[in-house]
Amino acid sequence: MIIEGVEAEVVLLGSCCILAALGVLTSSQALGGIGSSSVLGLAVLFPIASAMDETGFLDRAISVLLGQPDSLVCAIPRMMVPVALLSGFFNNTPIVAMLIPVVVSWSRRLQCHPGKLLMPLSYAAQLGGSITVMGSSTTMMAREAVSSYYEMALFSPAPTALPIAVLTTLVVALLSPTRLLQSSAREETDNEGDNDNKSVAAYEVRFCIQQGGALDGAALADVMAVLNRIPGVNSAERIEASSQTRTQGVSFLSDDGMLHHGAVIHCRANSEGIAALRRIRGLELATQKDSNMLGTGRRHRNLYECVVARHGLPSMQAYRLRNDLGLALVAVRRPGQDRAPWLAGCGEDVQQEDVVLVEADSRFLVEKSDGWSAAFTLLTPVRDSSPPRCGTDVDFVKAVFTCVGMLALVLATGLNILPLEIAAGILLLLLLAIKAVSLKEAYSSIKVNVLLVIVGASGMAAAMEKTGVAGFIAAKVMILVQPGGAFAVYAAVYFLSFFLSMWINNTATVAILAPMLVGMQESLPNAPVANFVFVMVMGAGSCFTSPLGYQTNMMVMPDGQYVFNDFLRFGIPVQLVHGLLTVFLVPLIVHIIGG
Predict the structure, then answer these.
(1) How far apart are CA 333 and CA 175, in angstroms?
(2) CB count, 10 Å around CB of 59?
(3) Which of 26, 338, 447, 518 gives the lowest tally of CB atoms within 10 Å of its CB?
(4) With contact defined as beta carbons under 8 Å apart, do 430 and 48 qualify?
């Protein structure tokens, strides 16, 4: 797995099966993680996060906090600080699940690969989870495990965890522009995007800036740069005023170069590029009114590329196309012409063998199959091209309900009112009931590979505990480092905490090490036991070097296109800095505050 020969879920599940066959584990121990609360909770969080992404509310809210910094060095702290603070009070799993699509969208606006931001997102969630007792299951487990000899109040970890989190965030920000932080698939993805953008099979389409949208008031140069970076977009090259803006005599571009509603941007893009463009909050197709007339049921609507038959379309009038074929014309391109005229909505007839891009309800393809067969000789659906579900009053109500429900979920789990899987399950049922997400969309949003890795890691954790390997290693290491003095002992506690959490559950790591802390403290009678407790909490709750070490690391892997070595390359220097800060600052701060 480390040399990237086999997928992580195959290695872990395969190892569990082998250990079960050898009698080291029972079948329930090897595969019991399938029914664990973390796996079930995460499974229902994926469709909830998808529904949150559809609302667009979170994108706007987080944009206020994230802004548009000039560089990645400034961007990382602006993202990590609010995420860490939220993770200090609420379960960081739903927070990361909620923010992954937002950060991916933000990376497009920053013109950087999502891999530059998603790993720091996971790190911020881990750092914040140690700020308060309710921040993570690791701190909750620590409070219970050390309760016989140390009482942890809600904010007991905060004086040590906050400065460590801030300083680690600065280190992550300084290292982020380097080649240490990148996904191994980045170069390949960028090359593919370059090839897409050079495609000559492009349509010319017009997009309008929506009033009050995310791009209303954005810098023109930034908007055009972002649009030109989208895979499938050949160029965003011209901008003009809409007919309404010209009539009213209102300027769509301010003197300082800021873009305002009423602007129309001419883009050349292939079908996938157009689908990506219309998912951007604040952009709207110039033909959107015709698409809206197709009615409700937008989850059934998609874009289709169609080759016009000899007899052509029955009419170019929008209402005739809608009534006869159940479609709305979006754009037209003419094979053999580098710059086809923009025909949609202009009243000009299409010709035989022209390729038209239309939006249609998939149900109409069956109901009006005779008309479609006569009009087109070839039809190809565009992948992931359903229109975004925002803009209507019903969408607004669904969006408000989804956001309030997500807040209630975070509060219910953060305050231990309901278990995560129960609260998330209730919310998902409600979202399905109001049709904020469909059952098909819910199933497709679940990332099975992430769940299988967690199941396999749970089985391996059981093997480590059952065989006594973890306890044996911890005891031997302490014998070796005790002659080195207090800092050597603290360093050993930190090393054991994060090293064991790379392979076994974080809470299991705390459960294994917590009983040893009293004995370690006896060898250093002048050292408060709080030093050992907080060093253990920091180490077990912050595993940066392995995707297996923390659940949020696994959650960001698919969207960040990370592999195992990406975490090693960037995580090792971050882990070293975090460890040094922990070993030196925890005793100092505990001494100052009198822990």
Answers:
(1) 46
(2) 20
(3) 338
(4) no
Question: Using CA of residue 420, residue 425, residue 428, residue 430, what is the dihedral sign?
Answer: negative
User: Cα separation of 150 and 590, whole Å?
Assistant: 14
pLDDT, tens digit, 9 for 90 and up, residues 303-354: 888 888 877 676 666 677 777 788 888 888 877 766 555 554 444 567 777 8
Phi and psi at residue 164, in whole multiples of 5°?
-65, -40
Q: Are 587 and 210 in contact (CB under 8 A)?
A: no
Query: H/E element holding 511?
Result: helix 506-513
Q: Indicate the pairing of strand 355-361 with strand 327-333.
A: antiparallel
Q: Amino acid identity, residue 520?
A: M
Longest CA pairwise span in the chain (Å): 93
A 10 A CB-CB count for 291 gives 23
pTM: 0.60
Task: Say whether pLDDT at 44 is over 60.
Answer: yes
Of 334, 368, 327, 365, the C-alpha closest to 349 is 334
Classify residue 160 by burial, with Cβ atoms within 10 Å: 0-12, 13-18, 19+.
buried
Burial 298-335 (b: 16+ CB within 10 A, else e): bbebbbbbbbbbeebbeebebeebbebbbbbbbbbbee
Look-up of token digits 């960037």: 570
